[in-house]
Design goal:
With about 130 residues, this protein is mainly alpha-helical. It is built from eight helices and two strands. The longest helix has 18 residues.
């Protein structure tokens, strides 16, 4: 079971518009009331990670960019594991920044993710260097 993540109002409005959904349909996807969706779209919300990932799947066919942003938001939840693609991107970026090979930095990146999981810190926090 995943936790909750913070989602900006702008994102929820854009997702609803992109999917051509009504407030009621978006509320059904998030398993909340229509009034909650209206409130979320005014000031943002903390939503279940599971609901956000369902939204990402719905967005995949219509807007891959928005679906990717949705998954990035879901990565705020420490319960969401980093995808292989995310880890590979971090390894390549670290190797480039350090002027070495990806193989040389992989053990350090893997160790950072293990430490973050042990502390309950999100993947996003690790990537942004906020994992302590």
């Amino acid at each position: 079971m995943h936790g909750v993540v913070s989602v900006p109002a702008r994102f929820l409005i854009e997702a609803e518009w992109t999917l051509k959904m009504s407030h009621k349909e978006l509320a059904e996807l998030f398993e909340v009331s229509r009034r909650s969706i209206i409130r979320y779209q005014k000031r943002g919300a903390h939503v279940l990670t599971e609901s956000l990932l369902k939204l990402a799947v719905a967005l995949d066919a219509v807007s891959p960019e928005l679906a990717a942003e949705c998954r990035t938001l879901a990565c705020q939840d420490p319960g969401v594991q980093a995808s292989d693609e995310i880890v590979e991107g971090i390894v390549r970026a670290a190797a480039l920044a350090l002027g070495t090979s990806p193989e040389a930095v992989r053990p350090g990146v893997d160790a950072a993710f293990r430490a973050a999981r042990a502390k309950g810190v999100s993947v996003q926090a690790v990537v942004l260097g906020l994992g302590g």
